[in-house]
Write a structure and sequence with these properties.
Radius of gyration: 15 Å
Distance between the termini: 28 Å
Number of strands: 3
Order of helices and strands: HHEHHEEH
Strand order of the largest sheet: 1-3-2
Helix content: 55-70%
Number of helices: 5
Length: about 100
């Protein structure tokens, strides 16, 4: 991608995606699903959240194409949608953790 910003429709989608990522609970869910696919029950139990809340957040994240679900028997396991999403999360976490120097 060049230094030119995306066209207006893509900018709107990008802004909405960043808005979704602004919720700490959704970020916790994404980081929890970073290493391996997780079921709603696993996510809820591990993050101490209700299953209905987790399902709500997953629906939003799936709509933004940040996660995808894979059905296995009666359960759906959620994982990050692709390497772009996982790389962005890891990179931003590293960026936030870096020491800052004021110029």
């Amino acid at each position: 991608m060049t230094g030119n910003p995306p066209a207006a429709p893509e900018l709107t989608v990008l802004a909405e995606t960043f808005r979704l990522l602004g919720d700490p609970t959704r970020l916790r869910i994404l980081f929890f699903c970073l290493e391996e696919p997780r079921s709603v029950g696993d996510i809820a139990a591990s993050l101490d959240l209700s299953q209905s809340l987790v399902s709500h957040h997953l629906r939003l994240l799936r709509g933004a194409r940040l996660v995808r679900g894979n059905r296995q028997a009666k359960q759906i396991f959620y994982e990050l949608a692709d390497k772009h999403v996982s790389d962005m999360l890891v990179d931003m976490a590293h960026h936030v953790g870096e020491e800052t120097t004021d110029d």
